[in-house]
Automatic annotation (TrEMBL):
<comment type="similarity">
    <text>Belongs to the class-I DAHP synthase family.</text>
</comment>
<dbReference type="InterPro" id="IPR013785">
    <property type="entry name" value="Aldolase_TIM"/>
</dbReference>
<dbReference type="GO" id="GO:0005737">
    <property type="term" value="C:cytoplasm"/>
</dbReference>
<keyword id="KW-0808">Transferase</keyword>
<protein>
    <recommendedName>
        <fullName>Phospho-2-dehydro-3-deoxyheptonate aldolase</fullName>
        <ecNumber>2.5.1.54</ecNumber>
    </recommendedName>
</protein>
<comment type="function">
    <text>Stereospecific condensation of phosphoenolpyruvate (PEP) and D-erythrose-4-phosphate (E4P) giving rise to 3-deoxy-D-arabino-heptulosonate-7-phosphate (DAHP).</text>
</comment>
<comment type="pathway">
    <text>Metabolic intermediate biosynthesis; chorismate biosynthesis; chorismate from D-erythrose 4-phosphate and phosphoenolpyruvate: step 1/7.</text>
</comment>
<dbReference type="InterPro" id="IPR006219">
    <property type="entry name" value="DAHP_synth_1"/>
</dbReference>
<dbReference type="GO" id="GO:0009073">
    <property type="term" value="P:aromatic amino acid family biosynthetic process"/>
</dbReference>
<dbReference type="GO" id="GO:0009423">
    <property type="term" value="P:chorismate biosynthetic process"/>
</dbReference>
<dbReference type="GO" id="GO:0003849">
    <property type="term" value="F:3-deoxy-7-phosphoheptulonate synthase activity"/>
</dbReference>
<dbReference type="GO" id="GO:0008652">
    <property type="term" value="P:amino acid biosynthetic process"/>
</dbReference>
<dbReference type="Pfam" id="PF00793">
    <property type="entry name" value="DAHP_synth_1"/>
</dbReference>
<feature type="domain" description="DAHP synthetase I/KDSA">
    <location>
        <begin position="54"/>
        <end position="346"/>
    </location>
</feature>
<keyword id="KW-0028">Amino-acid biosynthesis</keyword>
<dbReference type="InterPro" id="IPR006218">
    <property type="entry name" value="DAHP1/KDSA"/>
</dbReference>
<keyword id="KW-0057">Aromatic amino acid biosynthesis</keyword>
Length: 376
């Protein structure tokens, strides 16, 4: 139901002058109650959150790969992708911890489609209640494939509807310096990555991790949808994501070393995630494959500050406009993604890289199981 604001002619008003109306949402409790997580999925989320945290701090020697579409627009294609990814994730699980990237909120530099939650019909009808239901339903199905889920958190209220099903979260390059998002991250229950800013500034991401680690008090909402004062304990599992910037890429060894120095100065874990897409590959899907392959080679050679890698991947390579008629199945409508075949190959290459790094360290020379093997 929409409440339309209509100020009578000649009436004075100092509020809502640029607001056309309000659409009512179900409360988070209502939506979650209708689409419950359930005990088995909850165990997967809890276990995977712990495993992700151990990979990020180095006590689990696997590499974390967050892999999936730039932004989900077709839930059926995303389910198809999840089934493919789950099969390879099981194959490489001794060496690689795979999390499916399932992004529902698309930050925009100016304007454009804002993601599946905001506009699930891709038609500017903005049926947000439907978008929330569709998004949550997809998350539950991905978990049923045995895959942990990663999401970017953009709206400060939407996590109430989906965060119980999410194992890893990100704060994007456009919001990493936002106090609202740092406060949000301080109360979230999973490891959170802060991307460097769009101009390439890494210090703001380090500062974001430090700010999220602290307790905060801020305006928010409850599961009943009531406004409230939120008090958080702080989230100690923040980490930096290097995604490049307007000045170019920042995934080279010198860039990683520079980020580690900043993390050390801030008293944070000296490990990073590298986003192989965005400015690190010039948003080119072919270049992204080459960047990912280079990173895998560096992991194999013993560069242990690289804890995690993000890949933008879908069934088909490249991207398409929303005006394509018909839309190509399994092809991104936002940033270019690498094809599924390249993705499957890269997952196996990263697994081989981790095994090579173990061999280089002599980690299993005495026959003791690796951290990754102990978590299986």
């Amino acid at each position: 139901m929409t409440t339309i604001l209509d100020t009578p002619a000649g009436a004075a008003s100092t509020t809502d002058r640029n607001v056309a109306g309000f659409d009512h949402l179900p409360t988070p409790r209502e939506l979650v109650g209708a689409q419950p997580l359930g005990a088995d999925r909850a165990r997967l989320v809890e276990r995977s959150r712990d495993e992700i945290a151990r990979v990020l701090d180095g006590t689990d020697d696997r590499v974390l790969l967050v892999v999936g579409p730039c932004s989900v627009h077709d839930p059926d294609a995303a389910r198809d992708y999840a089934a493919r990814l789950a099969a390879v994730a099981r194959e490489v699980r001794d060496d690689v911890l795979v999390v499916m990237r399932v992004y529902f909120e698309k930050p925009r530099t100016t304007t454009g489609w804002k993601g599946l939650i905001n506009d699930p019909g891709l038609d500017e009808t903005f049926d947000v209640p439907r978008g929330l239901r569709v998004a949550r339903d997809l998350l539950l199905d991905v978990l049923d494939e045995g895959l942990p889920v990663g999401c970017e958190f953009l709206e400060p209220i939407s996590p109430q509807y989906i965060a119980d099903a999410v194992s890893w979260g990100a704060i994007g390059a456009r919001t990493t310096e936002s106090q609202v998002h740092r406060q949000l991250a301080s109360g979230l229950s999973m490891p959170i990555g802060f991307k460097n800013a769009t101009d390439g500034n890494v210090q703001v991401a380090v500062d974001g991790c430090g700010a999220a680690r602290a307790p905060h008090v801020f305006f928010g909402s409850t599961e009943e949808g009531r406004t409230a004062i939120v008090r958080t304990r702080g989230n100690a599992e923040g980490h930096v994501i290097l995604r490049g910037g307007r000045g170019g890429s920042n995934f080279a060894p010198a860039d990683v070393s520079g980020a580690v120095e900043r993390l050390r100065a801030a008293g944070l874990a000296e490990r990073v995630m590298i986003d192989a897409s965005h400015a690190n590959s010039g948003k080119d899907d072919v270049r992204q494959v080459a960047v990912a392959r280079e990173i895998a080679g560096r992991i194999a050679a013993g560069e242990d500050a690289i804890a995690a890698v993000m890949l933008e991947s879908f069934i088909e390579a490249g991207n398409q406009g929303l005006d394509a008629d018909p839309l190509v199945y399994g092809k991104s409508v936002t940033d270019k993604c690498m094809a599924w075949g390249d993705t499957a190959d890269l997952l196996r290459e990263f697994a081989a890289a981790v095994r090579a790094a173990r061999e280089l360290r002599g980690a299993t020379a005495d026959g003791a199981p690796s951290a990754g093997q102990m978590n299986v």
